[in-house]
Amino acid sequence: MRALGLFLAAVFILSALAPSRGHAQARNTPDPCPRPPAGSIVTEPTDLRSQNAVLRVSLTYRQSKQPNGSTRYCYLAEDGSQAPTLRVKPGDLVILSLKNDIASDTHEPAASTAPVKNNPAAQPIMTHAGPMPEACAGGGVMSATATNLHFHGLTVPATCHQDEVLTTSVLPGATPFEYRFRIPANQPPGLYWYHPHMHGFSKVQVLGGASGALIVEGIERANPELAGLPERVFIIRDQDLLNPDAAPSDSSAPTVLLDADGDARNTGDGTGQPAKDLSLNFVPVPYPNYEPAIVPIKTGEKQLFRILNASAITYLNLQILTNSRPQWLPVVALDGVPLTYSGHTGNGILWQSHVGLPPGGRAEFVFRVPESGATLITHSVNTGSGGENDPVRSIAKFVSSLSAPDLHSRLAAAPEPLPPPALPWLGSVTPVRTRKLYFSETLQDPKDPNSPTTFYVTVDGEQPVPFEPTSTVPNLVVHQGDVEDWIIENRSLELHAFHIHQIHFLLVERFDAPANEPFLRDTINIPFWDGKTAKYPSVKLRMDFRAPGIVGTFPYHCHLLEHEDGGMMGLVRVEPAQTTQSAPDRQDKSGRNPHASATAAAERSAGVARWSANQSHQNEKR
Ligand SMILES: [Cu+2]
Questions:
Q1: How many angstroms does the Cα of residue 277 sit away from the middle of ligand 1?
Q2: Count H helices, E strands: the chain?
Q3: Assigned fold of 235-410
Q4: Domain spans, the chain
Q5: What's the gap in Å between 145 CA and the centre of ligand 1?
Q6: What pLDDT, on a 0 to 100 scale, did the predictor assign at position 140?
């Protein structure tokens, strides 16, 4: 409460000091999406917990226009808090009411000083043909003012009122839309998240802050070493630069060049103006001075850090420094899945001196801040010659203090162990087929590197076309129960982050070499092409379509959301499992039932010794 008090005091002082702008951003109209100033103490999001196996949540979606032309978006819980953390247990029912209330936000901006490129207000509104009797009845309107929700990482059905994003569109002023779905009983316990998935407008809404954490509780049941630890949720978001015209604090930094998206182009050396600012639990860490957010941590307390990269386009490469030296961090979960899940990983700990997180990615690790304090930074990420600039910068200063507030949540002290996974370990399953997809980009004017870019993800052999929101024809058809290998190539000069809804996958090869990274992910970086090498960078992913609840059509896309909005998305249709009778319509001869090959126990025991838990390079290219 002390920290909250300080924050509120800071907000009050800031608003009292704000100059009168002689505009409708009236002093007596509170900003519906208030955000703390730089240098503030970081507070935890509010926890909303399921009760009697049901989590009932009402979220109101609001916006506020900012003087620089950008727009904040936020989810307000009933108590007025922003972006609450939803806490559920496997098997729980989630009943979430989403009210789109942005029409009531008359929060007009003061005179714009720095118009934001790609302002959605200037973009055409895509309209699905036909009437719209219901938000998800196939007549959805995709527009800047409509919104919806995606529950990133959860294996829930891609159907109306569950995790459907292709036609679900909640319009401003419409009756609150009800999401109602059950967390699968075998959903791995860990960190997931929710955010809008309005194709064409995903970037602006997420960049404006529309995101929150969803925790499937019980990670200590998968890894008893975590029992009893207090847990800390860090959500790192990106946002438009607060000081776009400021000179870099490093005078040797190169001139700012813009890429085709209007973002600062990668300098390649870790310096210069970033494409976006970062924030930690909404405390901004703005360019050029990167005044860190302040995190008081109870002296001597070991904590589980649960970190989400909720950025729209920014990669993170996190390090914790003490006395300027990076600390070894025991990572225990990635993308919501405990590392114990493979059955191969010994104690389920991956020691890392830095943690790479693409947009959408999550990592969970244990850390005890020394009495002398520590600093959380993101190292620079080389995003390629066509990518955005992502320099090294500080994010937070950890201050060891006996009076630091207690964290809201603590893992169970004496957990009942989770039963082992019912299905064979994905790495032991023989895929029924291999497919190849690739990311590519074209410039409208090939001679002008700053002309608009079109983004594609294409099934090899087909013509690249940007995602067509009005089409319901899938790019790929798979069958529930199958496991497939997908090779994803990057034929462009910048990083992309492959993400698929509903399922997790396993990295089996990177650059055609075995990856030895036996953990599950739902988002993965694909290294950029240098424009010269004959072979494109690629990863091979083992895709798990075995969950019975995933029959339906859902997207895969780049999680750099301006790429997704620009066309880098495709659809996969999961058809019901094939019986022996229907097997002849399977297209290739290599298909066989992966379940039939061996027992779960035999599968899991294979390759136990393959993996050493202490290979620091493994996550670098994540
Ligand atoms: Cu991309």
A1: 19
A2: 5, 38
A3: Immunoglobulin-like (2.60.40)
A4: 2-217, 235-410, 426-619
A5: 24
A6: 54
